[in-house]
Amino acid sequence: MGKFELDVDVDQQQEQGGVIEQPQLSGQEIQRCITSLEHATHCREPTCQRASCAKMKRVVEHTKTCRGKTGSGCRICQGLIHPCCYHAKCCLERECVVPFCRHIKRKLRQPQVKQRFAQAETLRRHVWP
User: pLDDT tens digits, residue range 43-56?
Assistant: First the structure.
């Protein structure tokens, strides 16, 4: 799905206006990123002991106020989309708090709904000519 760019300091990146590119991540690194994202969105501990928690909380908080979002603008938000997509594909929570999860799940279901409707129409035409 592309490069993850979440291992940078949000404040530093905003000040510099640039992106520090990182190499492609392995499956384990992607899973750690997803786990960190899920933990940070559910963690209510202000001084959590997990090293990645505070950093991920800043990234998540950034996405709530960012005006550039994902289009062609903010690289921080773009970097968060990748682990959110991986998360959404497996997420079973109806009211998930992971950023973009509900929207991504809705988008993933759209082709399935259209396909089922088309199949039902085809079946209906064959059964009732």
Answer: 999 899 998 999 99
